[in-house]
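SEQUENCE AND FOLD
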Amino acid sequence: MDKKQLLRKLPKMDELLNEEIVKLEAGTTMKEIVMESLREAVDNYRNLILKGKIEDFTKEGILKSFRIIIEQKKQPNLKNVINATGVIIHTNLGRSILSDGALKNVIDAAHNYSNLEYDLEKGTRGSRYSHVEELIKRITGAEASLVVNNNAAAVVLVLNTLCSGKEAIVSRGQLVEIGGSFRIPEVMEFSGVNLVEVGTTNKTHLKDYENALSENTGAFLKVHTSNFKIIGFSEEVSLEELVKLSVKSRIPVVEDIGSGTLVDFSKYGFEYEPTVQESIDKGVDVVTFSGDKMLGGPQAGIIVGKKKYIDKMKENQLTRALRIDKMTLAALEGTLKYYLDESEAIKNIPTLHMILASEDEQKRRALILKEKLENKNLNFKFTVEGDYSMVGGGSMPGQKIPTYVIKAESSSVSPEQVDKKFRKRRVPIIVRLAHNQVIMDLRTMLDRDFDVLVDAFTEF
């Protein structure tokens, strides 16, 4: 059949709209999406005909193509994925998973009207920040708190409020680059602050800060280098020393602690990571940290510290531009409440649970998943081996967490083929590849992921 005959054979839209499969879709899907999918299916065949790539076709083939296209269009661009990488706070995969308590709060806030900015006691307009302020103060021991939409925003707001047009003194060893190529010097410049670098990359002394002091100094800035470590011939000024200098000079100390750790992980055999509570106890004037990293909540920038400084930030016009929405507030409150009892936080906040769950628990789960996979008689060899997970999110870069992984290999299917097909699934699966094997870390996988993973392997 020549091209003209094939083109004339293409069905009309009215004809396709009367097909049962299309009618069923039209009953549950927006008309625009149905029509668009039909046109694309027909256009795909028209292009194949014009390029001479097919000699004939059937209406059933077009309808099958329509079904594939419309299923793709109905899927959200922001998808659920299975994280089998072993990186717990995976920035590219959405960082922390919300707890059940946080999720319930979000659904309630999104599905109903709320007292977001309404004081139920007084019957007048209230502040959205009041819903979490007392909780944050209770957990951290700070005099006051404020929440904005992420930690970079928190740093910008703090610096703009306390020392816009002035100088902020910071050690050269702390001029870090964070995710997305954002750098501390650029953040400071955007805040309207003049950067004064002191010390060297590996060594900074108290006298460096003292010598840099001037009548134009607005703050001492200390940045916790959570995403890298300087090992060897190095020295930095302690918080205690900087606070003493702050009291003597009447210049506030601002600490960007980054990951926002509220749990002392060294109690559980991990490397030491400074906590927000410690910084407040040592007298730091203002501390900023993230809500969606070690804290295990939603994306947010949390500011805690002396009330006189926090009050100034609340009056800054930037605060409105950087404020968080009701769903973030709801999720943050639901997360923070667990921290009133550390054992409850570890049990219920997925990020903390994944970090602290035992190696033996991962081995037990790995063996269960391996049995499920092997029961399917797949064309793969599966082995369970010890390995290491990472915290991720720029937190605890040197900490390796013992875990167990499942390794899959096949003589007929390459790891790259598995990886590509897994990423294209309705629920994508993100794995690691090494030594001609597909590696799946149980620490970052949920029990509900197991059957999905088994089904994915059966497709080869």
The two ends are 35 Å apart (CA to CA).
